[in-house]
Amino acid sequence: MDVADSKRREVLIDFYRSCSMLFVFYHHTTIVFPNAVELFPKFNPFAELFISISGFMVGMVYLHKESYRPLFFRGLKVLAAYFVVSVPVAMGMAVLGKKQEPIGRAIFDVLTFQSEPTAITILKFYGVMFLLLPLILPAFKRQKLLILVSSAVVFLLSTWVAGTMIYDYENPAPSFLAFLLQGQVFLIFGIWLGDLHKSKRLIGYPFYVVMVLIFLVGLSLDFYLGFPSDGDKYPYKFDKLINLLWTLPLMLLMLRAVLVWVKEWPSTAFVLNVGRNSLVAFLASEVARQFVKLVLLITGIHPQMYGQTVTGLFVVVFVTMLLWLYRLYWQDRLSMIYPLSARLWSSVKL
After folding, report:
1. Is the pTM above the cut of 0.90?
2. Cys bridge to 50: 20, 141, 233, 339, which one at CB 3.0-4.6 A?
3. What are phi and psi of 46, to 5 degrees?
């Protein structure tokens, strides 16, 4: 989540977050189509990058604060935002979907995490994790190594269980539990990196050496295994972790090079604005995604790869421009007319 004010932002971090979000939005849109063409089966570190950066900002900004109550309330607000979109979608699916069910039951299933009608499961993850951060951060400050090791052990055990047990992960409840137990390691790892960066002990020659070694080890393992990884990480599998070891460092390097190239371009501000309004961006992307699903349902159009790609890119551009208009016009108006609502939407950032 975006927990730093504008004075403490770093452009590179905002660029990483914004680009990872836009790739996620594109991916979510294209998989709406029947027989969708997966363009990122072996190069898709964007969700992990976004979660790690969110933890990075928490470690840099909140870790050493005296009170963590704001984080708890942020968790509640994120969950509320998730339900604002997911409940109406569940109601619509109950009426229009293939599986007819009572509207009351559909609402109950969403509120109890037994149904997932949207692609913004990450909001549930952030909501729950931010409710837990007031317990995690004090322990992290006292025993960093213990918390890091415990987080890694939880990830490894849950990943082993997910890969060896025969279970119907189509059920959203155990799927979300697996996602929670696995995704937390990227958030905790990001908190540690953010704390190191705050104390000016992160960036330097040792950091770059470690990143190169991780890249080489991951690429070598993936090559030895025949690159078995795919885009499926819900629940996570070990082959995806091996894939991530080399794709994530490579993506960090590539995005940094791109930022150096486009930093002075006026259009770069549009991209950076996405990461700075990430909660609204996720909600807007899901609304656009559901509109695409509705159009497909009504028209029965099933475009091939070109049409899927164009549609996904259109949603990315649409959300980016919508957020720019939100920043220029609607955000200040909401602050004047609805001060309480404005604080909910503008203060809660992913």
Report:
1. no
2. 20
3. -70, -40
* Long-range Cβ contacts of 143-146 (<8 Å, 24+ apart): 144/192, 144/195
Residues of the chain with pLDDT under 50: 1-8, 335-349
Report the C-alpha gap between 281 and 272 in whole angstroms. Answer: 12
> Phi first, then psi: what are they for 143, rounded to 5°?
-135, 75
| CA–CA distance, 329 with 332 (Å, rounded to integer) | 6
Six-digit token pair at 46? 């964007």
For residue 64, what is the DSSP state?
T
| Domain parsing of the chain, residue ranges | 1-44+264-350, 48-203
CB atoms within 10 A of CB 76: 14
The distance from CA 127 to its chain's CA centroid, rounded to whole angstroms, is: 12
Question: Which pLDDT belongs to residue 51?
Answer: 93
* Alpha-helical runs (H) found in the chain: 11-30, 46-61, 69-96, 103-111, 121-142, 144-164, 172-198, 205-224, 238-262, 268-276, 278-299, 305-325, 331-337, 339-347
Side-chain half-sphere exposure of 144, counting CA atoms within 13 A: 12
Nearest in space to 41 (alpha carbons), one of 207, 227, 165, 257: 227
Q: Are 1 and 58 within 8 A, CB to CB?
A: yes
Q: How many other CB atoms sit within 10 Å of the CB of residue 230?
A: 15
- Quote the pLDDT of residue 293: 86
235 preceded by cis ω (within 30°)?
yes
State the Cα–Cα distance between residues 185 and 188, nearest whole angstrom: 5
Q: What is the pLDDT of residue 272?
A: 92
User: Which pLDDT does position 333 carry in this prediction?
Assistant: 57
